[in-house]
Amino acid sequence: MEAKPKRRIVTENGDTGEDLVLATLIGNGDDVGPLVRHAFEMGRPEPLVHQLKNVARKKEAEIEDLCKTHYEEFIVAVDELRGVLVDAEELKSDLATDNFRLQEVGSALLVKLEELLESYAVKKNVTEAIKMSKICVQALELCVKCNGYVSEGQFYHALKTMDLIERNYLKIIPLKVLKLAIERRIPVIKSHIEKKVCSQFTEWLAHIRSSSKSIGQTAIGLIASARQREEEMLERQRKAEEQNTGGLGESAYTLDVEDSEQDSVLKFDLTPLYRAYHIHTILGVPERFRDYYYSNRQLQLDSDLEISYGQPFVESYQTFLAQIAGYFIVEDRVIRTAGDFLLADQVETMWETAIAKIVLVLENQFARMDSPTHLLLVKDYVTLLGATLRQYGYEVGPVLDALDKSRDKYHELLLEECRKQIVTAISEDSYQQMVIRKEADYENNVLSFNLQTSEIMPAFTYIAPFSSMVPDVCRIIRSYIKGSVDYLSYGVNTNFFSVLRKYLDKILIDVLNEVILETINNNSIGVAQAMQIAANISFLEKACDYFLRHAAQLCGIPSRSVEKPQASLAAKVVLKTSRDEAYHALLNVVNTKLDEFMKLPENINWITEEMPQGPHEYMNEVVIYLETVMSTAQQILPTDALYKVGVGAIEHISNSIVSTFLSDSLKRFNANAVSAINHDLRVIENFADERYHSTGLDEVYKEGSFRSYLVEVRQLINLLSSSQPENFMNPVIRERNYNTLDYKKVATICDKFKDSPDGIFGSLANRNTKLTAKKKSMDMLKKRLKEFN
Question: What does the mean pLDDT of the chain come to?
Fold first, then answer.
C-alpha cells in the first residue's frame, strides 16, 4: 500500500506538456494511431514510449486515490463477500449431499431410461419395417393382379393397375431390388399389351372388312324396301287418278329412312376399336394408333375398289357396290361414336377417292355394255347406293352425274332393242282386221291404249278396225316408256318428264315412223295392206295421247297438264304425215290397178263405124274393183280417209280418160268412140253417186260429191258430143258448161276428132257431100282455137 503514493509523486513531478497532451487524447478516447505512426516515421519512438509510461503512472496514481477514497466501503464489501463465501461453501456441501443422493436414486432410473430409449428405437425400426413391408406387399399384390389381368386379356385394367403402381408406389418402394425389378417389367408389359391389342385389332379389321358386304347389302335393302313402298303408293295414286277418285295431291315423294331404324338393323361391333383406342390413349400413343387405323383402312378401301376382270361386271357389281357402302357406313359409325378418334376430313378424303374410282368404273363398264337390261340393273343398284350413303351425309352427286352421262347410251340400246321388236311386229303383221272374242282381250288390246271408237262396250265377237300390229306396237312403246322412266327415276333431275318426252318422240319418229314408211314404200304391198297400214297409223296417232298421259303418270305429272293441244307429241304430227303418205301409197296401188283395167287404147275402137249400145266390158271390172275397195275402206278407214280414197279413184279415172284423148298414141277418134266413152262415163257417174250417198259422205262433204271430180271428163264428152261445139268459144256458154276445160287441151283433142267413117272409099264417097252442121261447127271450133292459140 505504501509504494503507490511514492510512484504517484514521481509521476506527478515528471509531468511535461507533451505528457498532458497525450493524456488528454487518451482520456477523450481519441485515436493516438497517427501520433504513434508519426513517431515511428520520425525515427524517434522512445520519447513517445516515455510519454505513454508517464500517462500510465499518472492513471495508476488516480486509481490509488480512488481506492483510498472508497476503502471502508471496500472493507465492508470484502467482509460481506467472505460471508457469502461461507454460505457458498455450505451450499456446496448441501449440493454435494443432494447430488450424491440424486446419483443414488437416478442410476436405476437412468438404466431404465436407457432401456426405454432402446425399446423406443426398436419400436421405431419395427414400425418402419412393417410400413415398408406393407408397401412392398401392396406393390407386389398389384403386380400379381396386373399379371392376372394380362393373362385374362383385361388390358385396360392391367394398364390402370400399372398406372397406380407407377403413380403411388414406385417412388416409395423401400426395397431397391424390388423397385428396379418393377421398373424394368412395366415397359415390357406395356409393350406386350400393345402388341396383343394391335393383334386383336388387326383381327377385327379383317372381320369388319368381311362384314362390310353384308352391312352394305342390308342398308341398301332397307332403301330398296322404302323405294318399293313409295312406288306402290305412287301406283295407288295413279289408279286413283285414272278412276277420278282423287289422289294424294303430291307429284313427288322423298325417300326417308330413319337413322335410328338403320342403326337398329345394322348391328356391328366396334368395341375392339374403342378398346384399342382407349388402351393406346392410356399408353400415351393415341396418334400412333389413329395413323395405324387410317392407313390400314385406306389399304382396305384401295383393295375394295379393285374390280375383278375375271367375272362379268353385271355379275359382280352388287358385291362391289355393297362392299363400298358397308365400308363407309362403318366409317360413319366410327366418326359418330368414337369421339375425336377419326377426323371428318379423313373420311371425306377416303370418300373422294372412292367416288372418283366408282365413277371411273361405271363409265368404263357402261361403255362396254350392249344390253339395256344390264345397264338398267346396274343403274338401279347405283341409285340405291347413292340413296343409302346420302342418309349418312355423303355427297353422291358425281355418281348420279355419271349415270346421267350414260342416259343417251342406255336409250340408244333400248331404242335398238325396241326397233327389232317393232320391225318384227310390223313384218309379221297379217294386215287383217283384228278379231277380238273376249272382253278381257278387248280391255288388253283396245281399252288399255285408248283405241276404242266408242264408249259403249261392243258385242263379241268384235272386229277391230286395226290389225294386231297396233296393240303389239303400243305394248312395245309402253315398255319403252317404262324402261326410260326406270332409268331416269332417282337420278340427278327429279323432274325428268321433258327428257322422257324427247325420248318418246324419238322412238315414235325415228323408229316406228321410219319402219312404217319403209313398209309403205315397199312396192310389194297390195291394196289391202296399204289400206290397213293407213288405218293402223290413224290409231297409232290416236295412241300418242295415251303414250303421253302414261308417261306423265309415271313421272307424277298431272294428266290435265298434258291434255292441252299444245302439249301433244311432235310424233303425232309426223305420224299424220305418214298416214297421208299411206293414203298416197294406197291411191297409187288403186290407181295402178285401175290402169290395168282401163287400158283405153287397147280396149276401145276409136274409129268404130258402129254406134255403141252400152259401156265397154272392162268397165264392169272397174266398177267391181271399186266396189271392193270402197267396201273395205268403209270398214277400216275413217270417214276422211274413205272420202280421199273415193275421190282419188274417181279423179284418176277422169284424168285417165282425158289423158288418153291427149296421148300421142291416139291419132284419131270419131263420134262413135265418144259415144262409147260416154256410156262408160255414165256407169262411173252412177257408181260415184251411189257410193257417195250409201256411205253417208253426202252428210259430211255436202259441197264435194264424187261426181264433181268427173266434171272435166264429163264436160269434154259433152263438148265432143255437142251439135254446136263452136259454142265453146262463147264466154258465157263456156263459163257455164265448159269451165274446167283448157284451151290447149281442147285444141289438141279436137284436132284428133274426125266425124266421118274411115272406110276404104269413105273420103271419096263423101267428097262432094254437103257437110253437116256439126262438122261445120267443129271445124269452126278448130279454126278459132288455132287462131286463139
Answer: 81
* Cα–Cα nearest to 691, from 715, 677, 709, 676: 709
The CA-CA-CA angle for residues 449, 454, 457, to 5°, reads 85
- Residue 500's Cβ-count burial label (10 Å; 0-12, 13-18, 19+) is buried
Could you read off the pLDDT of 231-240 as tens digits, one per residue?
788 777 766 7
HEC profile for 3-50?
HHHHHHHHHHHCCCHHHHHHHHHHHCCCCCHHHHHHHHHHCCHHHHHH
pLDDT digits (tens, 9 = 90+) for 651-710: 888 888 888 888 888 888 888 888 888 888 898 889 888 888 888 888 887 777 888 888
Q: Where are the alpha helices (DSSP H) in 243-343?
A: 259-265, 271-282, 286-304, 313-337
Supply the pLDDT for residue 234.
73
The amino acid present at 145, given as its one-letter code, is K
The pLDDT of residue 766 is above 70: no
How confident is the model over 366-376, as a mean pLDDT?
87
CA distances in angstroms from 271 to 202, 262, 293, listed in the order given: 13, 19, 14
Instruction: Name the 3-class secondary structure at 599.
Output: coil
At CA 678, angle to CA 675 and CA 679, rounded to 5? 95
With a CB cutoff of 8 Å and minimum separation 6, the contacts of 136 are: 173, 174, 175, 178
Listed in sequence order, the residues at least 6 apart from 426 whose beta carbon sits closer than 8 Å to its beta carbon are: 469, 473, 515, 516, 519
**The three three-digit cell numbers of residue 411, written as one number:** 336409250
The answer to whether residues 676 and 612 touch, using CB atoms and an 8 Å cutoff, is yes
